[in-house]
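If your schedule permits, I should be very grateful for your opinion on a structural question. I have a record of one protein: its chain in single-letter code and its fold written as discrete structure tokens. Would you kindly read the sequence against the tokens and tell me how you understand this chain to fold? Thank you for your consideration; the sequence and its tokens are set out here.


***
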Amino acid sequence: MAAPVLSSGCTPVVAEGGCRHEGTIVLDTSEPSEATGWSDFGRYVKGAPRAMYRIQDRICVRSDTYLVKVGEMFENTLIPVAYGERPEELRKIGATLKNYGARSVCLYHVHESGSFFRGSDISWLTLLQEVLEEVGLSIEVKRGEGHIASSIAETALFQGCDEIYMRAKRRWHIRTMMLGSVSQDLLRISDVPVFVHKIRPHLPEGDTGLKREDLTVLYATDLDAASVRPIPYIKEFHGSRCHILHVRDRMADPATERRRRDAAMEDLKAVEEELLPYFGQVTSEQRIGDPATQVLHVSEWLNADVVVLGRKNPTFLSGPMGDTAERVVNESKASIFLVP
């Protein structure tokens, strides 16, 4: 298999199953080689043919639109920050991210057009950097300007970040509230998975951070392509419990309903088996009704810490993230992990 064409600064070396290199974004690849035993999906870029290759000794797969990395999915995280950020809160976030495999963090600050803080002293950014370095993370500070959500999404993609982490309900400069226009736009346009930290889970004080075994994950799936993409990320959570929820419409007649129920049950059992090695307990169920209503209800019943969703391409008259994802994002008390 020929070596891919890589972004600048990357030196390709042909290896078994493909290419090993030190970069993060592959621009083009050749046809896939023969391979078996891979199904994990992760970091990606768009617009290249399917391929499989090895990056830093990790098997990678690209489907028609996704570059895939198997390994620590959260090792490089972008955190948008604004003036007034509390260092003690960021310390708890950094400790938790480290527990989940993070090695490096990009602190990213966007100069909002017309902001009072534009061009002001940025020593507060240095303080935040020092706090995260004390936790044991490698920190890079970057600054941008323009449309906030677009700038964050673009930087996360070009930095090769595995996810964007942001807190809900916090102030951007003077005018903008998070889970308002910025976060809505970011969830809609980001080509990198976005973690929105809401009321749950509660982060412990100090440098201990939230442990993997403390986490309860709700995985909402339509059992389609958009819902399959989050599976490798779910594996990385390694929580105490993962509950798989499939919500569907009732079929027109009893025989069709029975066939649909049995087929969904078989698919859910297959997902259970795939996730079982990564959680203390894996359960699944299917429900009939409105997907967003059922996801929100089960999330509260389960006291879930994180709801994992795949973002669908919007259809005409639907919400920009898909109607179900948009409502869950807005109304859930649990944190949201949205995979595009």
Summary: The chain has three domains: 5-62, 76-197, 212-339. The two ends are 29 Å apart (CA to CA). The first strand starts at residue 5 and ends at 6. Confidence is low (pLDDT under 50) at residues 1-71, 170-179, 315-320.
